[in-house]
Amino acid sequence: MPVVRSPIVSLRAKGALAVFTQPAFKAERVTYPVMTPSAARGLLEAVLWKPAMRWRVQRIDVLAPIEFVAFRRNEVSSRAAAPSVDVVRLGGHVPPFFADEDRAQRNTVALRDVDYAVHAAIELTEHAGPGDNLAKFVEMFRRRVERGQHFHQPYLGCREFPADIVPADSAPPPVNDSRDLGIMLWDVAYAPGGNRARFFRARLERGMLHVPDDPEATLVEEGAA
After folding, report:
1. What is the DSSP letter of 179?
2. Residues 6 or more apart in contact with residue 155 via CB below 8 angstroms
3. Res 219: pLDDT
């Protein structure tokens, strides 16, 4: 049975800095040249998310020249562990965590002065009820973008790089830039048995990154060639 989707809706995201980290780099953060589909989905979900719907990113337009900047940031080498259920229920010792004693300087290669238009469609999920429909969610999304409403601060790859979300109606045309982006992260499939990162062969065509529905399809075609 074919999946029913809404008409394409759009938003525009701008920011001074962005880091869409390539998984191949572990300790250092090196960004992809273009926003990833998973980061674009994060922007959309910051504006509107309900259990009855899911976002399918169709295209990402690059509206500003791709420029990189390198700097160092203080990060922590580990993170505080959540107390166990027994500690929460019965009380007990919780190991302390002092960030100042666990800091490490790491290099970051980021994008600067970014500007994107994200185009996506909405699908209903198995949690949709009788009162849920695509037209309702489309109208909610458009209204929230116009009013500048969001559930949490949208960000560009990392939470310390906030994004300004505005309607895409007045967005300029994409930049005239075409390049091979290599193997790019499409999204992460979350499952009880373990999470799996999914990738696709990405290419920027005249400032537009077209996002496939089946990320593995482009990799199969690449291998067959």
Report:
1. E
2. 42, 46, 161, 162, 163
3. 66
E-assigned strand segments in 80-163: 103-124, 155-156, 158-162
* Burial of 117 (C-beta count, 10 Å sphere; 0-12/13-18/19+): buried
Nearest to residue 182, comparing CAs of 198, 196, 200, 156?
200
pLDDT in tens, 133-158: 999 999 999 999 999 999 999 999 99
Return the residue matching tokens 């250092």.
28
Query: Rounded to an integer, what distance in angstroms lies between the CA atom of residue 137 and that of residue 66?
Result: 33
- Burial of residue 174 (CB within 10 Å: 0-12, 13-18, 19+) is buried
- Report the C-alpha dihedral over residues 109, 112, 115, 119, rounded to 10 degrees: 10
Quick one: how far is CA 80 from the chain centroid?
25
